[in-house]
Design brief:
Two copies of one chain form a homodimer. The first copy, chain A, is α/β, with parallel strands linked by helices. Chain A has twelve helices and 25 strands.
């Protein structure tokens, strides 16, 4: 009988693993169980679907179960929830949702890609149905229905992380009165306060009532209680980050660690032989802090899913890890970060100086040039680049990739200053913002030019 | 008496050297001779001034002689042309233009930043006044005057390099009938033909009559003779690249080399003690081909100028070199390249495979997503990144910086695939175009994932 790979979870980390395992082993019997209604979709696109920029839910679906079946001979079953894993008998217990039956299936290889769920803090009243997280396409469909019903006139977004900001904008686009409540001094925890401050300006300019330094304490009857007073709401969106869905793995005896995420090695192997994991439910390695971290992002899910799949298919692949890169757009302003922020650096004992540049997206004299604020963190002593952040309109977010690449390569700020980056006045100033901030860091480090 | 630094040339490489030398040595007597009417300006902005996107010539001037005098105690003299350098007597012979007098000035340190001039091939009739290069602000002023006179109804651009393309667009914006004549199979020599082909489409779509594979053979009375027939013209723009202005240095006995450029070392020192050079008149080191090259770009001029200045001021700085990065915009489409192209790689004995991606600027489903074509060249055997090229609208040109950084760091395509680059569907697809092309290169190399 053919060996069988069972994959739990049918989104990015599950399906890339399944297809890459198939590429390696045509003999393998591959079954995927997905508890939702969709496989392989772009969860990151949900705010734009809710806001109306993306027209149809189908636009977010990359591939359907039928396509996996036809093209890759992968048996992808939606509406199937895995309830338990028995590592001694090498079986999974699966509930066929809506069919009232449970099946038991054996496996030789197991891949856990159960993702993560919006964090729900233990606050009074939080389980009310008008308090929603945003993670799956099913969540998206529910929110869209609510928009169509007109049941979202007053929206409170709790937490100013990436998804929180994107959802705040989405509901302004739907003509809602939107209030953002952020516990910290500014949204987006991992950026310098000057950058966070610029985001607050953009949000307010777009019509989002933004309260920083305010803590939500509980929920009443369509009321959000907070340290800043009560806020009426038809709908609350939780933007407090996500928690890995690792209970299934932990219950089976698979090791978990940082923030409860499943512990994996650089080949995406868990603590149990023949059991792999990838994506939002698993941990990953941070190349700057040299610690295992939990970073729930589509990029990590896709890459780690490929690596798991290659290994499951009998090949050899490793995932080196991340440097903490993230980007989003708030209205037309893009904000991006990579590496460690000042607090994270301090936590792992790295002393940094921060270089700043206030320049423009194109040459200052060129029509369409927009202000750009950039920060570069360099290690005191060595000048090694530890992190960078950038904010501005005119599509500058991806300039952070230069710094993500520089950090991965272990470059110093002097190396960045000397990088041969692209220049034309219609496109960028002579010194790219990341180079200007690196020059400032260099001056503050009191290190020679090169 | 104070030691004196004489700088020949008052644009980027000259003035950055002067100001950085001042920073290092407050005692130094610094005199700059500039034969034109302007110091420190953005020559790269000239096409946009001629085209009307940039409103005033003054917008391109970064700093005036007065500012250098007041802020840095630098004696910057415009309309002063250095006619000769006597290295035995350590003097320069300077003509004060329009004043009918010549002065002789001694120096202790000399910095040569004489720039480059548009290449004028030895063709019959090429010295006619309606055949113009574009290099200095004085050229720009002359062209603007011609635009105002309406004396540019029919413009022929000879050569499809960066400046040629930008000038073609500029004159279309001025309602001229513009014809581009390019000897090669497509404009922009250093890109793959598929990318060059896309540029031809864009040019034609914008109204530039584009003739490739056509050689100009000479000029008659407002007629351009070519292998494809005669073309009538009120104005010819030469876009055939530039030739270093190194005659002054060579005549003095300073060593020149590649394409006639002044030979410098990594501290921008020439073959003569105490004599430095930087910018378009000097050569530089190519980090991939490991050869000395002549690359006339503002980025190189500024960086090498700073390095020269630090060293002239008694400090220590080195310029590591370039990787051949360049970008421009043709209408709304940006095209960029870095590293070696296939021909350049072959010339230095590097065998490459070419990976290709045809993706989008944002997630495919996101409004505003534009097609992006990307090429990545990897060395056969090692998988080392040798070059990359990208073309597309929606501001994708600067994505080449990721590859410029990766090449500088000696990364392989597998490293690029694993880079933690920024992703949000409103900004970029899950796999950045450079990663998709790197994945394709990886497949063609038949190398493992990582």
């Amino acid at each position: 009988m053919a060996e069988r790979l069972v994959v739990i979870g049918g989104d990015a980390a599950g399906m890339t693993a399944a297809t890459n395992a198939r590429r390696g082993r045509s003999d393998l019997d591959i079954v995927v169980f997905e508890k939702g209604r969709y496989t392989s979709y772009s969860a990151c696109g949900i705010p734009y679907l809710v806001g109306g920029a993306v027209e149809s839910l189908d636009d977010l679906v990359v591939r359907t179960p039928q396509e996996f079946r036809d093209k890759h001979r992968i048996d992808a079953r939606i509406d199937h929830e895995v309830m338990g894993v028995d590592l001694d008998r090498r079986t999974v217990e699966v509930r066929a949702i809506g069919q009232g039956r449970t099946i038991t299936m054996g496996f030789d290889l197991l891949h856990i890609a159960t993702g993560a769920s919006p964090t729900r803090p233990d606050l009074p009243g939080i389980d009310a149905p008008w308090i929603r997280g945003v993670q799956t396409l099913t969540d998206a469909a529910d929110l869209l229905e609510r928009v169509e019903r007109g049941d979202c006139g007053r929206v409170v977004v709790v937490g100013g992380g990436y998804v929180g900001l994107e959802m705040a904008e989405a509901f302004v686009d739907r003509k809602a009165d939107v209030t953002l409540v952020e516990r910290g001094r500014h949204p987006l925890g991992g950026v310098e306060s000057e950058i966070g401050g610029r985001i607050v300006e953009v949000l307010r300019g777009y019509g989002v009532e933004t309260h920083c330094g305010v803590e939500v304490t509980g929920f009443g009857d369509h009321v959000v209680h907070s340290s800043g007073g009560d806020l009426e709401a038809d709908l609350v969106i939780l933007g407090l980050g996500v928690t890995p869905n690792s209970a299934l793995a932990a219950d089976a005896g698979i090791a978990t660690g940082v923030r409860g995420a499943i512990t994996v090695d650089h080949r995406q192997r868990t603590s149990v032989d023949g059991v792999y994991s990838a994506g939002d439910c698993a941990d990953t390695f941070h190349l700057v802090s040299r610690e295992r971290v939990h970073i729930a992002l589509g990029t990590v899910a896709n890459k780690s899913g490929v690596v798991a799949g290659v290994n499951l298919g009998g090949g050899y692949a490793t995932f080196p890890g991340v440097v903490g890169t993230a980007v989003t757009r708030v209205c037309e302003v893009e904000v991006a970060r990579t590496g460690l922020d000042v607090g994270q650096a301090r936590a792992v004992g790295i002393e940094v100086v921060v270089g700043t540049s206030n320049t423009t997206s194109r040459a200052g004299y060129f029509p369409g040039a927009e202000p750009v604020l950039c920060k570069v963190l360099a290690e005191r002593g060595t000048g090694r680049v530890i992190g960078a952040q950038i904010v501005g309109a005119d599509r500058v977010g991806k300039r952070i990739d230069t710094m993500a690449t520089a950090i991965t390569a272990g470059m110093r700020v002097a190396d960045v200053v000397n990088l041969d980056l692209a220049y034309a006045p219609s496109i960028t100033p002579m010194w790219d913002p990341v180079q200007s901030a690196s020059r400032d860091a260099l001056r503050r480090l009191d290190l020679p030019w090169a």
